[in-house]
Amino acid sequence: MKLTKTSKIGILVVLCLTLLIWGINFLKGRDIFRTEKVFYARYKNVGGLTATTLVTLNGLKIGYVREIYFAEDLSGDLIVKIALHNNFPLPKGTTAQIASSDLLGSKVVKLNLGKAATLLHANDTLASQMEADIMQQVNEQIAPIKAKAERLIENMDSIVTATSKILNSDSQRNITESIRQVHLTMSNLENITATLNEVISGQKKNLTSTISNLSLISADFKNSSGKLGHMIDNFSTFSDSLKKLEINKTVEHLNGSVGSLKMILAKIDTANGTLGLLVNDPRLYQNINNSTENLNRLLVDFRLNPKRYVHFSAINLGRKTNGDNQNNPQDADNITYKVLLTSSQTSLSLKSPIFKGIEEVSEIKSDGYYYYFTAGDSSLDKVRIILNKAQGAFPEALLKCYKNGKEISLKNGLKMNKK
Questions:
Q1: Cα(94)–Cα(117) distance, rounded to whole angstroms?
Q2: Quick one: which of 268, 279, 302, 356 has the fewest CB in 10 Å?
Q3: In angstroms, rounded to a whole number, what is the distance separating the alpha carbons of residues 269 and 276?
Q4: What is the DSSP letter of 124?
C-alpha cells in the first residue's frame, strides 16, 4: 500500500514530537524509556538544590531530582521528589544527604544506606541530612584561629596599655631616681669595702695575736684532757649510785596512790558518800540554792523590819507604842498597805524595764539606800494581788503596813483590820 503525502506528513510530525519530548526529558536527566521509582525527602533548607540534580549511591549515579516544591502544611519546608532508575533495594533508615560535589559548590544528593532488614517502597519518605558546604567548613576551621587572634590582640592591647601607664612621666622619674639610688648604694658599698680593708690592715697584728691565743687555749684544753676524763668518771659513778636507788619502789608507791585516788574519784562519781551526793545529786544543789534565796529574803526583811525579830522590854515613859493603839477600833481606818519591790545603793529610773507592768512605783531614800514601793491601798486583798504579780520579777518583794503614814508591823495592822 502506497502512503499518501498526508500520511507521511503525519508520521513525520509524530516522530518530531517524540524526538522533542525525548530530547526535553533527556536534557532534564530523564529517560522516558526506563522505569523509575519515586521517593520523597523533606528539608528545612535545600541550600541551592535544583531539579535535575544528580542522585548518587556510593558515587554512582542512580537517579535525579525530579521536582522541588513547598509542603502543603504551609510550614515553609521543602519537599524534594527523587526519581531512581536503578532497582537497587533501599533498606529503611536510608538518608538523602544534600552535599557539595565540587569546589564550586555544585550540589548532589547522596543516599546513605540504612541497616534495617526491611526495605523501602516507592513513594516512601527518606530521612534528610545537610552536609556543611565548603564555606561553612572553612569558617568552622578558621573560627578557633580567629578567636585566638582576637584574644591575642586583646592581651597585646592590655600589655601596651599597662606599659604606657608604667612608662609615664612620673614612672620615668621614679626609674631614674631608682637607678641613681642604686648608683649611690654601689658607691657606699665601695666606701665600706675600702674602710673594711683599712680596718683589717690596721688590726692585722691584733688578729694574729688572737689566733695565737686561740692556739694556746686549744693546747691547754688538750693538756687538761686527763682532768676531763676524771670528771667523766665521777659522773659515771654518780649515775651508778643513782641507779642503785630504790626508784622502782617509789614508782610502785606512786602507782598505789594513783589507784587509791582513782577509787575515791569512782566513789564520788557513783554518788557514794556525802561528797559524791554533793557532786552528783542536783536536788542538793537546788535545796542549797533555795535556802540561800530564803536566807537572802530573811536578811532583807530583817534589815527593813528589825522590830519584827527583836523585841525590847522597856519602861513606858508616857510614849505611845503600837500596842497602845490596838484597842482603838477607829485606827483601822488609817491603815494602808504597800509592796516593797526592791532596794539599791544606786538610784534606779522609775521608767526602767524592770518595773514594766507595775503601776505607780515610788522611790524613797533612807540610810544611803533607795527603796522602791508600789502605790498604797487600804484593801489588803488588792495589795496581795499586786504582791503576787510583782514577785515574778522581784522574788524578794515584801508586804508593808502603814498607819497614818508611819510604818507598823504587819501583825498589828492585820489585828486592827480584824477589829
A1: 12
A2: 356
A3: 6
A4: P
CA 419, CA 414: separation in Å to the nearest integer? 9
Cα gap 335→223, rounded to integer Å? 110
C-alpha cell at 233: 668518771
Residue with cell 530530547: 23
The amino acid at 135? M
Name the packing angle between helices 247-269 and 273-280 (round to 10°).
60
Residue 91 DSSP one-character state = B
The DSSP secondary-structure symbol of 38 reads E
The identity of residue 292, as a single letter, is T
Residue with the bigger pLDDT between 356 and 277: it is: 356
Model confidence pLDDT, tens digit, residues 369-402:
899 998 888 888 888 888 888 888 888 888 888 8
> Is domain 34-131 given the CATH code 1.10.3470 in the classification?
no
| CA–CA separation, 28 and 51 (whole Å) | 8
Contact 47, 107 (CB under 8 A): yes
Q: 223-262: buried (b, 16+ CB within 10 Å) or exposed (e) per residue?
A: eeeeeeeeeeeeeeeeeeeeeeeeeeeeeeeeeeeeeeee
Q: How far apart are CA 357 and CA 5, in angstroms?
A: 137
Cα(334)–Cα(13) distance, integer angstroms: 152
- For residues 31 and 18, what is the distance between their CA atoms, to the nearest angstrom? 13
CA distance 58 to 375: 113
Q: How far, in Å, CA of 105 to CA of 137, rounded?
A: 12
Residue 75 and residue 94 in contact, taking contact as beta carbons nearer than 8 Å: no
Element (H, E) at 359: none
pLDDT digits (tens, 9 = 90+) for 265-309: 776 766 556 666 666 666 666 667 667 766 766 776 666 666 555
Number of separate helices (H) and strands (E) present in the chain: 10, 12
- The correct answer on CATH 2.40.100.10 for the domain covering 331-418 is no
Beta bridge partners of 37: 84
First-residue to last-residue Cα distance in the chain: 171
